[in-house]
Amino acid sequence: MTDCIRLAHGGGGALMRDLIQQELRPLLPGQALDRSGGGDEAAVVLHDAAVLPSAAAPLAFSCDGYVVQPLEFPGGDIGSLAVTGTANDLAMAGARPRYLSVSLILEEGLPLELLRRVVASMAASAAEAGMEIATGDTKVVERGKADGIFISTSGLGVVEAPAAISPAAIRPGDVLLLSGDLGRHGVAILAARHGLDLQPPVLSDCAPLWPLVAALFAAGVQPHCLRDLTRGGLAAALQELADDSGCDLVLEEARIPVVPAVSRCCDLLGFDPLHLANEGRCVLVVPPDQAESALAVLAGTGGAVVGAVEAWAERSAPRVRLRTPLGTERFLTPLSGELLPRIC
Fold first, then answer.
1. Which three-class secondary structure state does DSSP give residue 226?
2. Which alpha helices (DSSP H) does the chain contain, by range?
3. Which of 86, 118, 88 has its CA nearest to residue 100?
4. Segments of the chain with pLDDT less than 70
5. 327: Cβ–Cβ under 8 A, 6 or more apart, which residues?
6. Which of 30, 122, 170, 188 suits a disulfide with 204, CB 3.0-4.6 Å?
7. For the sheet containing 95-107, what is the strand order?
């Protein structure tokens, strides 16, 4: 085995098999991937698809692609991002993440040591999210065609929500909560990409959200809607919810949690933390009589009640209104483009 990826590693021959068997599989112990052949030979057989136990409950299915640059950043890497991103999409549908497929697009010349770190990170993140990596695929492209690693994932989860979680369930009077402070992932990527020496360093918030969702269910909270705050940040997510629910959403600016390090970086560079990407934060829309219970679940996370749902005023399309500490209001609109491309 060489110390970097070669084109021949994607040829489907012995080199590819060696890459998978000698490098990748040992980094994914105990995953469903190792049992995909079935029967007693499961430990040594890789099949074209994983056969998984059936579930009596409805299933949630999601897919995503990850092209973040740089591949490693404070608080995570493309591997942890790929696992948690898909796991969080399932959690936002009220589904316990169970199985993950992984497609690796590797660039010729990629150091094997870097690939080992990324795959090991995927295994650790899958364990943290309660998922098993069930099946995968590896391709290698020519130097200069993939910027190191691209990862595509699909996730399968079992729905445990007591009632449907959807923008269509949002009602006037509902309460808006955030699961934690905003902007860490965007600032972490920005600092890593441009060599900014932030003191103290800002780590990405990349983390699975299912433990939070499960705790809500256990506390008797039935969210009307959940939405993770990835590209476009809080502003884009809320505008989508306003459009899809047909309700106005009103935010109290003074209640939105942003840590000082993120706030200072945004002030310096002219960014708004409400537009920055997050990878371990979500907005919760809950009935008003469950807001206190939801807030209790968020204790210790930095989460807070940040606003409420109002009936659509029908002056124009449903809007997101930001109420300032001075009592004035402005409309919060998503950006037309990406503030930071290649963020996830």
1. strand
2. 14-18, 78-91, 112-129, 184-194, 210-218, 233-245, 260-269, 291-297
3. 86
4. 1, 11-12, 32-52, 54-55, 336-338
5. none
6. 188
7. 59-66, 149-159, 95-107, 132-141
Amino acid at 5: I
pTM of the model: 0.89
Q: In this predicted model, what pLDDT tens digit does every residue of 124-146 receive, in sequence order?
A: 999 999 999 999 999 999 999 98
Torsion sign (Cα): 11, 15, 16, 19: negative
| Paired tokens of 58 | 């409805």
Closest CA to 281 of 228, 224, 226: 228
Neighbouring C-alpha atoms within 13 Å toward the C-beta of 17: 7
Strands (E), the chain: 59-66, 72-73, 76-77, 95-107, 132-141, 149-159, 175-178, 225-228, 247-252, 282-286, 304-311, 320-323, 329-331
DSSP secondary structure code for residue 22 in this structure: I
One-letter amino acid for residue 97 of the chain: P
